[in-house]
Write a structure and sequence with these properties.
alpha+beta; 4-stranded antiparallel beta sheet; 2 domains
């Protein structure tokens, strides 16, 4: 029998695989409500993404924003987001 963390990770991998194959995000991956950015600058950034501090409802959250440029390959962007 698998431990809880192992089972959860395996389930998430299968969910990501199915989402990528069908091109649809499950409802549990869709935020309900308005997300507000609470800073004027990204908290941290790399060449491919930025992380912003924000608020969802009454909770502090991290918002990861993937950078997409005019030269980005749409198929690669889909793979990263799936």
């Amino acid at each position: 029998m698998q431990s809880h963390p192992e089972y959860r990770m395996r389930t998430l991998r299968v969910l990501r695989s199915l989402s990528g194959s069908w091109g649809v995000l499950p409802a549990s991956y869709t935020l309900q409500g308005e997300v507000k950015v609470s800073e004027v600058r990204a908290w941290i950034g790399t060449g491919f993404s930025e992380v912003w501090r924000g608020i969802l409802g009454s909770e502090m959250v991290a918002i990861k924003v993937i950078k997409v440029t005019g030269t980005s390959d749409p198929e690669k962007v889909k793979k990263v987001c799936a």
